[in-house]
Amino acid sequence: MTPMEVAEWLNQMLANNPVPDSGEEAYRWLHSRVERVVKDGRNELIGGLRIWLMLRQSPKTIFAADLAADFHLTELRSDLLQVLEDIEAGRTQFHPGLKSHYANLIAESLSRI
Predict the structure, then answer these.
(1) pLDDT score at 1
(2) How many other CB atoms are found less than 10 A from the CB of residue 93?
(3) Within 10 A of 112 (CB to CB), how many other CB atoms are there?
């Protein structure tokens, strides 16, 4: 799979989660699906998550950061640092009033990688 195909697969997994109204349940659903492919498709997964990180929007960017931390995808550390910098500079689609909230979420993911 190409990184774009992985990003599309992630989009489908997120869209087809059984509890669409709960961000936490959606993340658990996505996590369980990613867990099945991370070992055999690590590089492709990293590429797909990199695409989600480039979106700079919730929930995909935050989910990508959490998945990077949960699966210790150290290759995404510099991408996460750039996301954090962009949040702090206001160069994202995140709600401006929640800038510090999203910055804290990304910083927390960085600390767990």
Answers:
(1) 86
(2) 9
(3) 11
Amino acid 77: pLDDT? 98
- Asked whether the predicted pLDDT for residue 21 surpasses 80, the reply is no
Q: Mean pLDDT across the stretch 89-101?
A: 90
CA geometry: angle at 76 spanning 97 and 39, to 5°? Answer: 125
Residue 90 burial (10 A CB sphere; 0-12, 13-18, 19+): exposed
